[in-house]
From TrEMBL:
Keywords: Glycosyltransferase, Transferase. It comes from Rosa chinensis (China rose). The keyword Glycosyltransferase applies. It is an enzyme of class 2 (transferase). Signal peptide: none annotated. This is Glycosyltransferase. PROSITE patterns: UDPGT (PS00375). It holds the Pfam family UDPGT. One of its GO terms (molecular function) is UDP-glycosyltransferase activity.
Amino acid sequence: MALAESYILNEQHVAVLASPGMGHIVPLLEFAKRLVVHHGFRVSFLNITTEASPAQTDLLHSPSLPSGLHVIDLPPADVSSLVKDEMLVVHRLGVIVEESLRCLKSVLIQLGKPKALIIDLFCTQGFDVGKQLSIPVYTFFTPSAAFCAFTLYLPTMDHEVEGEFIDLPEPVQVPGCTPVRTEDLLDQIRNRENDEYRYYFGHVRRLCEASGIFLNTWEELEPVPLKAIRENPFYQKILTPPVYPVGPLIKEHEPVTEADAECLAWLDQQPPDSVLFIVLGSGGTLTAAQLTEFAWGLELSQQRFIWVVRKPTDASASATFFNVGGDANDPKSYLPEGFVERTRGVGLVVRSWASQVAILRHRSTGGFLSHCGWNSSLESMTYGIPMIAWPLYAEQRANATILAEEVGVAVKPVKGDGKTVIGREEIERVVRLLMEGEVGKVMRSKAKKLQESAANALNSDGCSYESLARVTKQWKDLAAPI
Ligand code: UDP
């Protein structure tokens, strides 16, 4: 980690620490880029390399990063004896982060003690190191403001509720916010007895220790939870740090592979707003039965599509979280027989990973079937694309509800009582509804308005830009570290 002296001594230097997973790396990297490009900072982006996916490595070593942004690969930690195949995502992530961050203090000292450390939600070891080195530590909260309000309320719930949250008779009344239905509660808090909850709660309960919380949202998109966090007496009583909505920060440049180039060339041949883009986030996978129904429903809808497929698994909906981009299976081996041939010309099947933003911003893309990860949701709104909400894990069910019921840019397929999969007729129905129905038109027009509002927020006189400028000014005004 040899760094030029001028770099180490540069006073406008901050460090950003992301936990693994594209949903975390992507927004923190965009945040780091903005600090460099718009606010004149040098940024050390600390990359946890242990079990990094191929897609993460490609993104962080892309030649398009601005020159003031330095990706510092933290030495890989040996987690072989600690990580087990059956571990759930956050538990596994927690172990990887814990082991990888043992070097954090010495790395920050070597970097000449940056003016601030901005950490991801799952890297709260950063608070302890920040305290030891007298560096202010901020959190970059990657999900929505609504979910931030919920998270800040969770320690109170944990204290007050006996038994499981999912057994509560009523929706959770988050102070000042729309109540959250128990069926929308995130996976990590559905069983308080397991290690997944222990790791999750261990991190999120520390959110109030931050000097400030950056949120990947903007004022016009989420006025209610933002107002609640700032003004509701509950949040004042728990000494909530200031929140700074700085979004939507989404991927701008991404590596375009040969397969992506093919997709884009195919899109060039299609009519405007005519193609449904289907991808379930960086880790999303369907069960074999659901994948089969999905393929049939899509074919029956007769709509144009690009579908990023992954080998199905019945084990976990987030099966590819740690190895996305590394799937070498031939889709024909798991899609219904003849699907690829029958849909040739109408649709494209892409293996494992595609340049999502490049496809969303193409004029021929008119709908997005998404797992409703917050980054994917922001990317869709940024390009004015309405959605079919197909939540799978984490807080995605709550995001889907917000997008469908509050923002009005998504439709949710209905599973039907007692069913384990969403049937092909229902899939056909929602695809048609979005791509050729009146409801789809209304959602598209709402999405286009949001696109404008998102762009305004990021302009140099926009609220998200100003919000970040307020904090960077404070950092610039700080005395040089001793
Ligand atoms: N992504 C992509 N191509 C894919 C799948 C995902 O570029 O084939 C990107 C997507 O654009 C987004 C991120 O991966 O920036 C996924 O983040 P999100 O929060 O939506 O979901 P998560 O992966 O955390 O479940």
